[in-house]
Structure formats: C-alpha cells, structure tokens
Amino acid sequence: MEGLMQRLERAVTRLEQMSVTMQASSGMANGDFVNGIEGGKSVFKNSLTQRFRGQFTRLSQCLEAFDVLLRGPVSDYLKHSRAIGSEVEKHAEMVNNALQTQRTFLKIAATHQEPVQTELQDLLKPISDHIQEIQNYREQNRGSSLFNHLSAVSESIPALGWVAVSQKPGPYVKEMNDAATFYTNRVLKDYKESDRRHVDWARSYLSIWAEMQSFIKQHHTTGLVWSKSGPIAPSSLLDPPTESRVTCPLPPPPPPGPPPVFKDDDTQPQTGSAAAQHSALFAQLNQGMDITKGLKHVSDDLKTHKNPNLRSQATPTKTKTTGHVNSPKAAVQKRTPLLELEGKKWRVENFEQKHNLVIEETELKQVVYVFSCNNSTLQIKGKINSIIIDNCKKLGLVFENVVGIVEVINSKSIQIQVLCTVPTISINKTEGCQVYLSKDSLNCDIVSAKSSEMNIMVPEGDDNYREFPVPEQFKTIWDGSKLLTEPTEIAG
Q1: Sorting pLDDT into bands at 50, 70 and 90, what band is 288?
Q2: Same-domain check for residues 61 and 195
Q3: Of 164, 219, 244, 284, which shows the fewest CB atoms inside 10 Å?
Q4: What are the beta bridge partners of residue 411?
Q5: CA atoms within 13 Å, Cβ hemisphere of 59
Q6: Strand pairing of 445-449 and 424-436?
C-alpha cells in the first residue's frame, strides 16, 4: 500500500508542475483558472486514491480468505499428522510448504498483471516442484504401513494447479478431492474401530480441498484473477531472483519392463524358439474368415470355366511399371513427422522406425494423440489426462500415470506398458494388442470391441509377467426374459 501511495504522490506532483507551466505560458493568473486547476488536482487525487484503495481491499480480502484456510483446515491437518507421526508428519510439512508458496503466488497475482505464457510457467515452477516432491515421497515409501495416507495426499495434491486452469477451476479441485477420497476411505476402513487419530486425520485433510473450493468460488470463479494495473508479474517467486540457485534433479522414473521394439522387416525369417513359431502359426489360424481378405475377387466374365473362349487366349504377361509421375506409388507423398505441443494436446504423427520418442514436460490437463506411427516406440513421463493411439502399426507405448483413459483404435500390433496407474484402457478395431500392467494398475477397467489377439500381462514377482488372453468369442442365450452373454473358449 505504501508503494501505491508513493505512485499517487508522484502523479499529483506532475499535475502541479503542468498547472504552473500552463499558467505561466498563458499569462492567466485569475482566480478562476487557479481554482479550476486545484479542483482538477483534487478530483484526480481522489479518483486514484479510490482506485488504489479498492485494489488494496480486494488483495486484502483474497489473502485473508486464504489465511482462513491455512489457520483452519490446514492447521488441523498438521496437528493430526503430528499425532500420527512418521511419514505422515513429514508429508504434511511438504503440503504446508506448498500451500505457503501458493499464497505467495496469489499475492503476486493480486498486485501484478499477468505475464506472457513462458514467464508464467517459470512463475508456477515452485508450485510444480512442490507437487513433484510430494508425489515422489509417496513413491519412495511404498513399503510403508501408512501408504494409503501418503497416496491420498499424492493423488490429490495436483489440486494446487488450479491457478493454471483457465475456466472454472473449482470442479478441477473437486476431481482431485475425489481422488483423495478413494484412499481416505481405505484409511477409515482400516482404523475406524481401532485408532481415532487416523479418522480425524482423513477428515481434516479432505476439509482442506472443500475449503479451497469455497475460496475459489468466492474469489476466482472463472479462473485466477490478475490485477488490471501495476507492473507485469516477475518470472520468479523469489525476490530478487538468483541465477546461482541450485535445484535438485528429480529422481528418474522406474525403469520400463520388456521394451516393445519391433522388427523393421516383416519378411525377415525368425530364428526364435519353437513356441514362438507355434504362436505365429496360431495367429494366422485365428484370423478365421479374415484370412481371405488378401484374395482378389474375380468377376464371372473373367472365369475360364464359365467362358470356354477365354481358354484359347494367351495369358497376358505382366509388364514392370516405371516410376511415372502419374503412377499411384509416385503420387503418395511421405508426411512430415511431428512431435509438438498444440495447446493442451501433444501431437505425435507420422514417425517411422523411431524408437527414442520421449515426452517429458507433461501436465495433468494435457492429452497425447498418436497418429500413423509405425515401427516406433514412445515414452511419456509424468501424469497426463489421456492418450489416444490411432491408425498405428507396431507401436510400443510406455507411460507412467494417466488419470483418464488410454484408447487404441484402428491399429495393429500395439504394445502398451503401464509403469504406475491408469483407470481405463479401451481397445477398438485393433488386431494384436499386448498390455503390460503394473502392480498399481491391476484394478483398471479394460474395454474392447471389434478387436482380436488381445493379451493382458500381469506382473508376477519382480521381473516376470503372466499372460491372460482377452476373450474374442461370446455366446448369447435367451433366458425367457432377457439376453445373457458370456465369453466362450474354443477347446483344442
């Protein structure tokens, strides 16, 4: 407020200097002119004072509401976390630090204008680092008896990213709160009858995000509100910024399992085991009626047994076509490979024989669309919204966390490996799809339609997988009132 008043005084001083200059140049020293200038200064000063006072009031109200959240639900959460101790207490301190950093960010937003997108990302980086730190701590303590507590916090802490949601961030926070509820329900189930401390902890933590939703609804309903006046926001929450600041590198993601790499040449003879040769043979036999797709249809007027006069005609010889500009092969042009972020969508298109494709800078609101990629492997790090694989052949996909769905359509020979979690995998119009699940993704839903040769690989031990085929054939009967459908197996 002191800085704003100094700006006001400088503006009034400039106005006084202008009045003296105008008075001297015009030679008008009459009282009306002087009174007019003095009146104008008074109106101008009052207008600026009211505007700055209103801005200060909005800032004060916003921060006061956020401080109510910190003094209430957050304080209770810290108290109950200390009562439990161990990993839960340390995790709670990380959450508190993240919320304090967000308060600093909100204060800057209330007194500064919104910066350009690149600088805004730098400004949000401390909050993102806190989120990553909290999630990494859960991964480092998978053997803890309090793992459900850590998971509730880890799965919901991305709610702090509401400041980057452009429209209605409230529902986004509610979605993260629902993710926490899944694990707090497990905590309540385990401790409801035995230890009241854990029950109080679960309720206090969920109340943080309920209060956060109320705060957003009151002050930032349609997105984070930036100041309309004042300087442009700095590119760092640190004041002054220091270039020598050392940042600790994030630990690498868990190593992928069996690499989904394919042979570049389909016609290359395979020297694998007899079991692999039998699998290839069964894959051909399992095509059923599709095995005739490669045969050309011959019309009746070209069949020799129906037209004896054709038997005496010489068989036409095939002539080798030249690379003329009008030939179909010459007309087909190779499309340019593309891997870029377009808004909230990562586009990965038209790659051939590329096994080192990696997407690292991911956010929860982003989606990945993979189109027409063949003989390639793509790795996606971090947590994103969804992944779509469309019209691809012999593609390997390795990813960590997806909060929405992984969908495969119109593709062939796809291998998918889940390193952490995914709620739903959908496979449609696809021939050949191998899905390697992690221990954390065993409860995901797998939906398939019009697809064949689907196998789910379930972890067994540290480095082994057990294969389960997905049914492709079903039997439907009428029980007198409704249809009953169940998968069938072919004996043999």
Answers
A1: low
A2: yes
A3: 244
A4: 430
A5: 22
A6: parallel
Q: What share of the chain is helix, strand, coil (3-state, %, to 5)?
A: 45, 20, 35
Q: Where residue 414 sits, what CATH number does that domain have?
A: 2.160.20.70
Q: Among candidates 436, 406, 394, which has minimal Cα distance to 419?
A: 436
User: Distances from the Cα of 229 to the Cαs of 4, 60, 116, 221, in angstroms?
Assistant: 11, 16, 15, 20
- Residue 408 pLDDT > 80: yes
Domain ends where: 193, 219, 245? 219
Nearest to 258 by CA among 402, 42, 464: 464
Q: What average pLDDT does the segment 432-447 reach?
A: 92
Query: Which residue type, as a one-letter code, is found at position 470?
Result: V
User: How is residue 47 written in tokens?
Assistant: 């207008």
pLDDT at 181 over 80: yes
Query: Which pair of structure tokens corresponds to residue 54?
Result: 């209103």
Q: Count Cα neighbours of 44 within 13 Å in the Cβ-side half-sphere.
A: 15
What does the radius of gyration of the chain's CA atoms come to, in whole angstroms? 33
Q: What is the mean pLDDT of residues 412-431?
A: 93
**Enclosing domain of residue 461:** 257-262+335-492
Using CA atoms of 433, 439, 443, 448 in order, give the dihedral in degrees to the nearest 10.
0
The DSSP code sequence of 436-490 is E--GGGTT-EEEEES-EEEEEEEEETTTEEEEEEPP--EEEEE-SSSEEEEE---
Q: What secondary structure does DSSP assign to 50-61, as a single string?
A: HHHHHHHHHHHH
Q: How far apart are CA 238 and CA 75, in angstroms?
A: 25
CA distance linking residue 356 with residue 337, whole number of Å: 13
| pLDDT for 66 beyond 50 | yes
Query: Counting beta carbons within 10 angstroms of the beta carbon of residue 50, is it exposed (0 to 12), middle (13 to 18) or buried (19 or more)?
Result: exposed
Q: How many domains in the chain?
A: 2
Burial of 230 (0-12, 13-18, 19+ CB in 10 A): middle
Q: What is the pLDDT of residues 222-279, one digit of tens each?
A: 888 887 777 787 777 665 333 333 334 444 444 555 555 554 444 444 444 444 554 5
pLDDT in tens, 19-35: 556 555 555 444 454 45
- The pLDDT assigned to 322 comes to 45
Domain harbouring 67, CATH code: 1.25.40.330
**Distance between first and last Cα of the chain:** 83
Our measurement of the distance from residue 477's CA atom to the centroid of its chain's CA atoms, rounded to an integer in Å, reads 42
Instruction: Note whether residue 37 is domain-resident.
Output: no
Q: For the residues of 275-327, what is the DSSP string, one character each?
A: HHHHHHHHHHHTTGGGGGTTSPP--GGG-TTT-GGGTTSPPPPP-PPP--TTS
Task: With CA atoms as reference, report the closest residue to 381 among 365, 396, 359, 363.
Answer: 359
- Which amino acid would we find at residue 152? A
